[in-house]
Design a protein that fits this description.
- The protein is of the alpha+beta class.
- The protein has two domains: about 5-150, no CATH class; about 150-340, no CATH class.
- Helices cover about 40% and strands about 15% of the residues.
- The strands form three sheets. Strands 1-6-7-4-3-2 form a six-stranded mixed beta sheet, sandwiched between helices. Strands 5-9-8 form a three-stranded mixed beta sheet.
- The longest helix is centred in the last third of the chain and has 32 residues, at about 290-320.
- The protein is globular.
Length: about 350
């Protein structure tokens, strides 16, 4: 069972010049060695030590204040968080920072991720080994989701880039099987960039937003810590909008449309015909998906996410310039891979 482990750390903003700070990062990121008994982890025998995670958080805090990402190894950009490789020079792990929260909230979040992984395993959907750890950053608790680093050639979207499009590709056929297991209580963000493929089996990477709903149709995930990235007056409105977006994942067809729409985002439009042929044959034979429908979802997201990012910029200005406090979230454009 993965649990949240409290890790104390030094002040978050380095006092040394950036060049020497990067040298310190390179030196300390290789010491001490990984230790298999530092915390609990699902299926993994080695992962970052307390000192290593402290150092990573120090660099993240510095990047949040300066927007200088040069001391970090960015692996990927999501809408809510970014994936960071650690150690920087030769990543062994991918770490995703979660919002400030109480210890109870972090423990509950870790337990929810465990529940989600177990629920997926029960229907033969495998996840990459995952743990959730916590850091005390100047008396503010926040979490890190940690997974083993995956070689680029195993990422599903890279496998597709290296392959001629075909509706019969085994990766695509297995994804159809995953889509058919989706229910109104348990779902998966099935976009190709969220998976690894070893030639025989898909493994899910993105478990940071566990798609679990209660009997009333509400997400089990406590959303309040994530809403802190937005201005207080609009948080309830954003919460409702996020619930509406999440509802897209409650049934197989809607998830399949989202997967098809994501092809535009990851520049794999050449796979559209093959993907739609597979989905329309194996998942939604009675209600086929069209490329026009997928494009409409993509265009809608292109409007929705920039609007939310603009609201984040307002909150960051309020936090840093008026309240003189840190803003604990990166604001990123996941379409272009840029920090805003």
């Amino acid at each position: 069972m993965s649990t949240a482990t409290l890790i104390r750390r030094t002040p978050s903003i380095p006092s040394t010049p950036l060049a020497s700070n990067r040298a310190r990062l390179a030196r300390l990121s290789r010491s001490p060695p990984l230790h298999p008994d530092s915390a609990n982890m699902v299926g993994v025998t080695a992962f970052p030590t307390a000192a290593q995670l402290q150092l990573l958080e120090s660099q993240v805090s510095y990047a949040l204040e300066t927007r200088d990402m040069s001391a970090l190894k960015v692996i990927g950009f999501g809408e809510v968080s970014i994936a960071l490789g650690w150690p920087v020079d030769s990543p062994q792990f991918v770490c995703k920072r979660t919002p400030p929260a109480t210890q109870t909230q972090i423990n509950n979040y870790a337990a929810l991720i465990d529940t989600y992984i177990a629920g997926l395993a029960a229907i033969d959907i495998k996840c990459v080994d995952t743990t959730t750890l916590a850091v005390d950053s100047n008396d503010v608790l926040l979490g890190y989701i940690v997974q083993p680093f995956q070689p680029a050639e195993l990422l599903a979207d890279n496998v597709m880039r290296a392959t001629e499009p075909s509706p019969d590709h085994p990766l695509l056929q297995e994804l159809c099987g995953v889509l058919n297991k989706i229910t109104p209580r348990l779902s998966v963000d099935c976009q190709f960039s969220n998976w690894t493929w070893d030639g025989t089996k898909l493994q899910l990477l993105d478990i940071g937003s566990p798609f679990l709903w209660d009997e009333e149709g509400n997400l089990d995930l406590e959303i309040a810590p994530f809403m802190a990235m937005f201005p207080w007056p609009i948080r309830s409105v954003v919460h409702k909008e996020m619930q509406t977006i999440a509802a897209r994942w409650k049934e197989p067809r809607a998830v399949a449309v989202d997967v098809a729409a994501s092809l535009y985002r990851i520049e794999l439009e050449n796979w559209m015909d093959a993907v739609l042929e597979a989905f329309n044959s194996k998942v939604v034979p009675d209600n086929p998906i069209t490329a026009t429908e997928a494009r409409a979802i993509y265009d809608e997201d292109l409007k929705t996410w920039p609007r939310l990012k603009q609201m984040q910029r307002v909150q960051r200005a309020w936090q840093t310039k008026v309240r003189r406090k840190p803003y604990e979230f990166f604001i990123q454009n996941s379409y272009t891979g840029e920090i805003i």
